[in-house]
């Protein structure tokens, strides 16, 4: 089997990556929505990265990795949709200063299930190199349908939570397939041994994006209605 060259797919997704900083933790996020008509930007991340700040209406700083530019979102500056049971969150806000790419990268098909042995990559800002975007890869160990998640034979370190999981299609183009949620070490013998990475499916985001597109159409239609 031909080895995957991850460099090119990683370079293509890098402009979509954000570091998320809060008063208590830091994590990773990535762009999955942008409307040129309304200038709203949507960032995907793990729920536990922003849950405390959302509950207590505290600020969240969104840092665009490639440019270094950032925005501080106060409670009234953002709308956050959360699925705590799935550890999935979506931050929507009006973009003013961040140099994003208008067209988000493709998500996997709604009904696509990644099979065991399939290789995926992910990236984020691990606490051991908090200012550096780091790349990881591994293979799908199993799919857990009732939790809408996967176990992956790979590593996730604090700070990588919320990072995008992606794979390269036959043309070498990256496709977002999930987000990093957690790393579960093996403590069966009482000591900490290598474990598995938990990847959450993006089904929740696909529902959100469908709703946003419907709302956008209504806004545009209302704005062009003759008076």
List the helices and strands and how they pair.
Blueprint: H1 7-13, E1 17-21, E2 26-34, E3 40-45, H2 47-55, E4 60-64, E5 70-73, E6 78-83, E7 88-94, E8 119-124, E9 134-144, E10 149-153, E11 164-168, E12 174-186, E13 193-200, H3 203-223
Antiparallel strand pairs: 1-2, 1-4, 2-3, 3-7, 4-5, 6-7, 8-9, 8-11, 9-10, 10-13, 11-12, 12-13
Concise description?
This protein is α+β, with helices and mostly antiparallel strands and 227 residues long.
How far is it from the N-terminal to the C-terminal residue, by CA? Answer: 63 Å
Contiguous low-pLDDT stretches (5 residues minimum) are none
Tell me the fraction of residues in β-strands, as a range.
35-45%
Determine the number of helices (DSSP H or I, runs of at least 4 residues): 3
**Level-2 CATH architecture of the largest domain:** Beta Barrel
Q: Say how many strands there are.
A: 13
Give the rounded overall mean pLDDT.
89
Structural domains: how many: 2
Helical fraction: 10-25%
Read across the widest sheet, the strand sequence of neighbours is 5-4-1-2-3-7-6
Q: How would you spell out the order of helices and strands? A: HEEEHEEEEEEEEEEH
- Biggest beta-sheet profile: 7 strands, antiparallel
Oligomer: single chain
Q: By CATH's scheme, which homologous superfamily of the largest domain applies?
A: Trypsin-like serine proteases
The CATH topology label of the largest domain is Thrombin, subunit H
Structural Rg: 18 Å
Structural category is alpha+beta
CATH class of the largest domain: Mainly Beta
Morphology: globular
